[in-house]
Structures are given as C-alpha cells and as structure tokens.
C-alpha cells in the first residue's frame, strides 16, 4: 500500500472521515483528553524526547546514525510561525506500523521491548512536540503528513489525526534549509514554533550538553545550528558533537570496558573540545525486592560508568552526574558519571531516589565502580606507574548533596579499603598492589632523598621491608592528599625512617649533598617526629677518626652527657684542614672529632645550611668550632700530659703566625693554659710567670724564688727547646719571646714584686744592686703596679741604705733617712738638740742617686722640711718624761721666733694624747682651759680641763691656742654634748640644766645623743611627778580635754619651768614630749583601744562631749583615732556585748516591723545605761558610723535574719518589710549578699500552695506561667495569703532564689512531679518541661510515669523504657512509651531522659537469653525479626556482645517452630556435599537456621557471616576426615602423571601462584614443592575411594558419615589415588572430578599455607576444564596478576625438556 493510501485509510477507518462511524471514537476522544493532560508541564522537555526517539530508531548497516537540529526564521509551512525547527535523522524511516502508532494513544511500538535496548519511557514520545508546535510535520519514506493540536473539523479530534501535505513545505523547501548540495536524511520533522516558545526552544538548543551522546549506543553525531539569510540574526549557539568508540575489551561475561572519544565543535571557538572517557558497562541480576511494574520484564540491570580522562565537555554548564541514557539535571559531585535505566521524575530533571528500582541500581553502583577501578589500575599493561596515579581522581572523595548518593559513596569507600589497589614502590619491573591500610606514605622530602640515592647506586629493594608497604612515589604526592586521606593512608610511623636509613646504608652510599639533605630532613622533622625515636641510635653523624678515616656515630652518642663522640665542624672554611691535622696531632682529646673536610665544604654552599647547623647545634650537640674555640677545648685536657701542654704552646704560636688566632684570643688562651714548671709539673693556676732562672736578673738580685708561695710559675727549660708539631717548626728563642708576650713570662724590672720579705735588703746592698732595686721600683711606678706591703716594708725598714749622722757613716732603713740640704739640717739640729737627723751618703752613691728622688721618696726617704718637723715631733712624742709639755711649748715658741712654719710640727703632735687633764691624758684639741663660763655645763658634762701645776702654763695661752686647746665657752655646745654625763646622773634636773640641754639641741640641730641620753630618764617634772620625755605631754588648752577623758596622761608643769619652756616646743618634740594634737590623739586612741571594753558610761558621754568640742574647733582627728573609734567595740548594745559604731543601730520607730524576724544591735538607751541623753549625740554617733536611719541599716537585717521556729507566726507585714529591705539593697548595683545569706534565708518562711517553703523551692505565678501550668502543678507562692501586692516584689523574690521566670522553673516543677498521680497533670508538666528542653540534673529526677488508667501507674527508670518496639518483641521486657505518650513527648524523652528510640543490641541479647532459658520454641517470624535487627546493627561491639551472651542458636526443625541448640553443636553449611551427608546421618539438626525462602532484608550470606563471627564453625572446618580409606589394591593401575594430568600447564599455574609475593616463597622452595608433586606415585582405579567423616558435639557424642571420593593424595606415603576419568560421562561428572582433583592438589601443595588452598583450588579447577591448555593457562594467570620468573622458566624447561 502506498503511503498516501495508508493515510487515507487511517482517516477513513479510524477517525470516520469519509467512511463509517468507528465504534471506538468515543474512547479516542477520552484518550486524547488524557494525553493533553499528561503532556509535560516543562516547555522544552520535548527535545530530550526527540533525541530518545532517535536513539530507539533503526539504522541501516554502515550508516553512522546522526541527528541534526536546524532552526530558521523562515515560515516554510505558511502557518504564520515566527520560527521553524527542523529535525533531521538518517534512520531507516517510518514504516506503516510506526504511522499507526503515532496516530494512536498508548500504542508505542517500543512497549515491552526494554530488554531490546529501547530507552523510551512514558509512551508520549513524539507527541511532546505539541508543547512547542501546534502543527508538527513528518516527512519520511514517502510519508508527508502533519498533525494539529486543534480538533479536526471532521472528527473533532486533535493531536493524532494525520493530514497529507502537498506543499508548504515541499521537500525542495526543506532541502534549501538543510543544504542544497547534500542529500536529505530519511526522516525530517518540521515544527512551526508557537510565538511564546521560540525563545525557550532557542535557549534549549543553545544548552544542548556536549555529553548528550555519551551513553547512546546508536547516535554518533548530533548537531545544532541556525539558518538565516542574514547570519548576524543568528542567536542559537551552534554545536556539532561527535562520538567515537576507540577500543573494546571484553573482561568477562558480565562486564565490558571501552573508550569513547567525544568531540564538540562549537561555533566561535578556535578549536573543538575533546575528551576521552573510559566506559565500564556491567550487568547485574535484578533482585526480587527491587522489581517494579514498569520494569517487570527486565531481568538484568546494565550499569555504565564513565570516567573522563580529560576535562569534561560542558559548554560552561554544570555537568550532570547521572544519566538515564540522556542527561538528568542531577549534580552528584562525583568524578565519574553513572548511567543506568533509572526511573525518572516526570520533569526528567532527577531520578526517583525513593523508588526501589532505582535503589537497586544504586546498590550495584559500588560493585561496578570497584570492578571498573580495579580494571583501570591493575590491568593497564606497559603503562608507567606515574600514569596510574591520576586514575585515583575518580574516587568520590567529596560528599554529595543527595543522601542516597552518600550511601553509595560510603559503600565505595568500604569496598576500596578491602581491595589491593594501591601500588607500592618496588624499584622492580614487577608491580605490587596492596590494600590501603597496608600501605604507608613518606614525607616528600624523603622521596627526593631516595630518588637521588637511587641514582647514586644505593640499593632500595628492601624499602617495603620495614613493617609497611611504601606507596609508589608517583602517587605519594601532595596533589593526591585528599584521595589518600579518604582511603585512610597514613604516613609511615616515625621509627620507619631509622630502619630505612640504617638498612639501606643510605648515609654511606650517597654524596655529600644528599647526606646534607638527609640531615636537613631529620632536622625539619625533629621536634614533632624524630625526637623520641630510634633514629637517635643509628650511625648518622660523620667524623674524621683518630687516624684520619671517615667514621659514623649516632646522635645519641654525640648528645649524651658523657659525650662518647663530640663532633664539631670548623666555623671558618680556611681552618678546616688546620683543625683536623692538629686534632690528629693531639690524638682527639676527650673524643672530640671534626666533620670530614668534604662534608664541611659542601655545607658552605648548601641552601638550608642554617637549618641543619641549628639542628646539629641544639639537638645533636654538633656545633661550629673556630680555632679559638678548639684551643679552648684543648686547654681543658692539657693538665694530664706535659708534652701535650708544650705542644699546645706551639699550636698557639703557629696559629697566631697564620692569623688563625688574634692577639686577644691568644692572650685569653694563654691566661688559662697549664704551664710546665721547673719541676716538670703542670700548673693550671698561676699569678705570674717567671722566665727560667738561668741568666735571669731576679736571681742576681734576690738569689732564690720568692714568688713560689704566691702562685708564680718558673718555666721549665723545655720551652727553650726547638720543636716540630703537625708539620710546623718553631725555635726555642721564638717560643720564649711568644711566652713573654702572651703568657707574661717576666724578669726584673718587669715582674711584679712578691708580697714577701727579701733577705738581701736586711743588710747593705752593693751599689749595682741598689740601683737595680731603684730601677725596678721606677718601672713599677711607671706601670702603676701596686707594690706589695711586705715587699715595700722590708725595703723601707731594711738597713741597706748608706747614710751619715752628724758626719758619722752608717746604714739605715730608707724610712729613717733624709735627703736634705746641709743648711736646713743644721738649723733643725740646733732647735731640737734631743733629735739627730740621718742624711743620705751622696759621696757613696754619687750624683746619679739624684735621678731616683721619686723612687727614694716612694721607699720612705724624707727630703722636705715638713717631714723633718714631723720626724722631730714623732721623736719627741716617743720620749716619756715629766717636762714634756713645757719642752714642746718652748720648741713652738723657738720656731715662732725663727719665723719657721709651725703647721707641720703642730699637726704632728696636736692630735696625740700627751697633754694632762682632769680626765687623763688628752690631745690638745680635746682639752679645755677652765674658767667661769664652764660652771653650768659642768653640771651635766665631764669636761677635760688642763691640770694647773702652777701659773707658768698660763703664759703659754697663745701656744696652747695654736695647739687647739679650747679657751673660753664661746658656743662650745657640741663639747658639752660630747662629754655628757651618764643618764643615771641626769634625773630630777634643775630648770637651768633642762633649759641648757634644750638650748644645745636648738644650737646643734642634731640632738640624737641628747635624746638617747634623756630617753627613759625621769628628768621632767609633770602633774604626775617626774617623768621621762616620752611619757610627757605639753599643755594645750584647745585640745587638752581629750587628755582628760581618762585621768592618766602626765602634762609638763608649766609653773615649775616658766613660760620659757614653750619656746622649746620643737626641741621638746625631738626629746619625745608629745606636743601635737595628732600625737596626743593617737595616744588617746591607744588608751581608748585598751579601755574600750571597760569604758564607763561617764567615759563614753565625756568622749562624745569632747568629740563635739573638738569638731567645732576644726581639729581633724588623725586616721588612727578615727579608725580606732570606728573599729573598737566600745558601745553597749541590746545584744549584751559591745560593738563598734558601724555595728550599732540607734533605735527608732521605723524598726518595729522588722524586729520579729531579726536580731539587731541597738545601742542601750535605758536609764541604767546611757539613758535617753545619748540621743543628743545622734549627729556625732552618725558621723562615727552608727546607723540612725532605717534605709541605712538594711544590711543589718540581712545579717540578723532570725526566723521563728513557728513559721506561722510570720505575718505578711513582716515579709513585706523584709522584701522592702531587699528592695533597698538591690538598688545598689555593687551590693552582693554575704556568703552565708543563702544558708540563713533558706528556711521555710514563705507560704506556697504546697506549704511553707524556702525561697529556692518557691515559684511566683504570673501570666507567663498560665500558658503551661496551673496553680496546683508546683510550689507557687500563696497569693491568697499575701495578696496581689506580692507580685510587685518580683525582682526581690528572684534575688533571694524564688523562681519567677517560666523557663527556669523546670527543675523545681520536676522535683514535685512525683507528688502527682493524675495522668493529665503529669502530661501537662512533661509538656512544660519539653517546651524548655529541660534535662534531669540528677538521678533522683530521672523517672518516667507509666499510667495504669487515669489515676494509677508507676514510676520507672528511663533505662527500662524505649520509645518504640517496631518488631513487637519486647512487650514483657521493656516499657514502650509510644503506647502512652504523643510523638512530641517521645522526642523529649529521647533527648532529655536518654530513652532509647528502639531496643538496643543488649536488649535483644537479653531477650534471646530469656528465650534460651525458657525453652521457648521460636516462630520463624520472631527469629527473622531478631536476626534482621542484628544484621542492620552489626558492628565490632555487636559481634563481641553476641559472642559473649548467645549460648544457643536457632536450628530448623521438622515442625514450623525453631529450636535453640548449643552454638558449639550447630554449624554453617558452607560445604553442600557435607551438608547433605550429615543431614542424612545425623539424628538431630546440626545446621543453623536461615530464612526460607530467602528475604531481601536478611541475605543468607550475611546471616552466615554473622554466625561465623560469633563463634559458629563451618561444617568444612569442624568435620574430621579420617585418614583411613578403602581401595581395592588389586584394581589399582600405576600411570605416568605427565601423560594425563600433571602437565606443564598445571605446573606453570602452580609455580605462578607460589611466586605471588603474598606467598613469600623463594624460588628454591617453589621448585622443591613441584619436585615432590612430580615424584609421587599415581595410582588409578575404576572404583571410587571411600572416605569417613566424623563430627564431635559438645556432649562428647560423635556423628559419623561416609562418602565416596574420586581423588585422594596420601602425602605421607607419596601416593596419589585417582578414579579413572571418563570425559565422555557428561559435564557433571567432569566438573565433579575437576573439583576433587583441584582440592587434592591444592591441599597437597599448600599443606603449610592452608589459608590459600581455596584460591589455588579454584584456579586449578578452571584450568582443568580448559584441559590445562598452556596459552589459556598463561592468560588465566595474567588476569589474576600472576607470573613466573626466569628461574621458574628454567626449572620448567628442565622438568619438561621435550616441550
């Protein structure tokens, strides 16, 4: 039928246009209405529907499917459309059935064909174009039709009625738009756009995502462009997207991987965007629990994951993370794309996350990801390791905004942690992968070191042999930190680095630069990593040894206190060799060593030298050392070896010559170095150094060494010997000069003299030695060197100096010699005939002696007149004869007459005691010539008056005056004071004597001596008799009243002394008399303080009167008196004790209302005490601190609170008065209640609805409480008793502890909760508590009411409760709160009382224990609920709990019930063959229960895993296979194993398995294992082999079973029994044989490594089915990452030479 005829037939038959009425027309009308309602509300969704339709279309072979969108502003349909969209698709074209379908509703040709790859979903498909176009056109395979959304005038139907199109447009019109030079694709859809849809359509076309083709299996090209005659009018962003599949690799029957190359050529961009995607497509079976009606026919899920190798194509848009063949708008935040047949929301924006079909897909995504990722990482052959690391960026590190996808992410993470995916650094061709927790990271700096070390030939093959596999360096980079952190990969522990450095010989094998980098690495990480590790104990620090070799020591050796090795480096590069050479010369004293020269030179140019040096200094004790510092170190070790000490001098000499040491440094070192003395002793301490005695001047002058006792060292003659050390030569002369210069080796006159007597000066000296001695003294003087006392004394006093006395020669000490002119000498001789003067012998010494005048003067020789006078005076004073006084006076008179100076002579004698007085011998200046003026003073002083033996002495008044004798009184007050009589003779003085003393004090100013003399002496007359000054007061009429309060103060008698006494006020004050008011007041205060407790009422009133008087006179009381008045307890109170003023209250009427509830200190004003008269002094009392006003005494109320024992006696007036006090106190913001206030106020004095309560147990009810509680719900203050006025004291009540804020009353309300029994009240209170999130603050408050009716119930602990019991198992075990309380209170109980939401694992265990003890037969439903709960809450803690508590486990019985057996007697059926055996032979069930049929919530494998972890054994590990077996020996036939089974392929496979690094088996052991296999005897039989099994139960009973086996390897007998294989007997028998064979071979080969038997067995079984084909075996090994090595290949060749 032609296309047009077909359309006419549809119009006629289906829509009754020009034909008979269709009976289904009414149904069509309804279907079209439903279609109109179902069309998507989103304007532009039609575009995805069209792409989806194009993907579902069929294409001819050899055609690259393409889809093109072209929009034009031309109205080629003549419908008045503002723009037209054309869609071109090169599919096969529309067939008649497609036309029939499109003219129907709900008759898609793709329906039910999901398994065939159709991706269309809702059945609307093409009809979605009506969203943007009113009249869509189709041109395909000869069909030229259009549809109209408006009802057809012939049948009144829209959307599905076809109409043939002759023109507008024609195919030529379309071709002009498409391009006249090309052939039109088979199918063209033309959409004249609605006016309001042009902009949305253009926007959607511009936003076509460049990854739209990624998961489409057919379409390979999609393009969007705009066609306008004027290109400037184009507004659509054109794009051409191309998809190419580059590579396909089939992994297995379930998964395929391939690479897709997407390119997007966008208009306006210089180059097209490109991206390669690794695609992983994997099939998963659909689980029953995930099936939905819309996918009921689908049996397999197909999940495709796309991993972009480059930046994803995005056109500036966000990239979707989930595809349902076409992109959704879900941004997953994952670095890969998930594609699957998801069920979508109607908008196509998102998948239905709560849909179980989609959940089933998401559950499979982690497995698909793991398989894809492992394939990417492990199966990339010949790819450098560095290219694998970027693959790890595909791991979903970041969380998603969708919680369901976060579950996927966490599942991926948990699976990754169990996979061997991380490559380790092996430095071999073989790659090794490990689980993340097995791998450790290194710090980046250490990687740099290792790489350089490897290039320098250091072996690093054992890098992963120190407790952790080391992550590949290509991956161990900062850019992958986030990935590695996600996988939990951590840095290796701190001890690893020490092991690595030591085991790899890293320090010895690298260059100096790398060595320094190692030190830098350790230094940078010392504080936080290596400080406490074993790195301290490995050989690390280089040094030059005793014989010049380079050695190593540990940090610990270098830094210990005993310093096993002290390593240093040279501070200056030019000194390196010098220090190393001399260190060898000195034999490395005290284990001091230096870094090698090469190391020291390298560190000079090391970029981080400061860091390394600082670490070496602070933590290794390796410091930089200069020549000076080294010399200082050597200096400490010279005192044990004389030769080393002499060598040290040579070291210093040569170091100075080479300028390695400065003059100053040499000087410092020389000062402290030990010297070898003339006895060959080492001297460390010395005061000076003497040159050797041979040829010295000191020996010539002195003869012996007087400096020895003073610490001087006489150098040994060895210093004069030439020497050669460390290759350097020095002569003895140069060395001695060096010692003189720097050690101070000295000789006369440069040596300092000893503090000792020189024997040679005790007798005459030769002229030469005399001049040598004078020259020595001159040198000392020039150098300003101190001359010791003994030395100078012996020179001064030694009789070695030649003199003449009156012409007679002799020898005298210098101190008794003169160097005077002869004329002066004669004059002095004539005046003092009793004294001879010794003169220096000029004739003996010659004129040269005159050059030494200063030196002679220094040693005592006198040369001046004044010295001669003093000499004469001293000589005269030494004479003791009676007429001395007159001789002296006569000599003075002679000098006056001779007009010679008198001062020196007089000065030499006037201070000496030679003048006789009444007080004994005194000096002239201490003596007085007696006269009338001194008589008064003599009463109080002992004056030294000169004795008058006659009147002759009076003629020498002038000479006496010159000598300093006092003539006349003339204001000599000081002399009076100096000679004052003893205090005991100064009592009861006359007025004249007292006044003289006071005058002396005034004149002299300083009166301490007089004051001390008078102290304590009763010398002043007072009204109370004679008293000492300190006891007296000077009368003052203004304030004398204060002294009259107590009649105990002595006042000076003014009548006795007269008015003159008042002129000496200041002097009296100095003597101690109290003359000032302040002092008197302080004394009064002391007396006041002493007598306060005994003050009479008369004293108090007298004091108050005086207080008023003094205040009126403006006398200010001193602070001490004020303090005393305020602090002393002197006022009587009603409390019966005295109080300070500030502690007292002057009573008044205002205090009456507060008195009943307080005890207050009122001043006693009754007649028998102070009387009412005390109120006259109210003003004075107030100023002293007494409280006289009520408002000022409120603090007394607080302190004196005393509630009566009968609280009912407290009236509201009392309470309000007390609250008024609180109100006054609280107005002072700085006031705070005393510490004990809370204790005193905490009495039951406030009346509440629940009786009298203390304030902190009360609540104040106001309007804010009414929303939550009623008056009877708690202890609210009784407003009926106090009246409404009580609310006005809200602030005061709050201050004393009453709860007034509704949000703060929770604890108090809760404390009274147990007094309620009405459930409605309790619920109301709980609602109130929950409103303010109150949490119980003690165990007492943690109770919950469980009602039993409205009036009864019980209080239980929260631990006995749960909120819900969804499984309904705990009705008798726990209190389930959702039975009694609404959800809002359940939430409150959860967070406030910590009530568990559901029963815990422990609760379930307790329930199970109850089932165990009761013998209760469980129902399958209850058992299933229990184990489903356990599986959902499985953890390490759950495992421990169940292991400890569950003694019995479920087994299925023949009945519907489940029995509980001892868990040691039940087993997991992991071996179905054994399961069948023991079900047949065992009299009781022995296999654990599992649900049948299986349920999704408790998979069998998960339940078995739980059983295993809590102690249930598997049947395979529990059964004992008896070694005895039955074989008919006569029927055995020995065969050659290489001919049938033990082939080269099998041996290759076993060798590859054993060579796996996990096995840790060396080549020799592998080969020995194969030899044992090849050397066994193979015996073949036609009969099966019988094997016996036994299973031991906890009761001791044994269950036995018997089975036939086809294979058995008797390893001890080295025999292999095998039933003859008949390969023609069918697949079952073949796989059975393969299973037994693989198990036997694996058990025999790996009998020492049983944990790997299963893995090898599976490989052998698979290879057996392939008949051990070598190529197949090699491929199988490669897929499992197994290989054999060259040594294995050689072994194979020797075993199978013919192959």
Automatic annotation (TrEMBL):
SUPFAM superfamilies: ATPase domain of HSP90 chaperone/DNA topoisomerase II/histidine kinase. Residues 26-142 form the Sacsin/Nov domain. Transmembrane segments: none annotated. It holds the Pfam family SACS. This is Sacsin/Nov domain-containing protein. The lineage of its organism: Eukaryota, Viridiplantae, Streptophyta, Embryophyta, Tracheophyta.
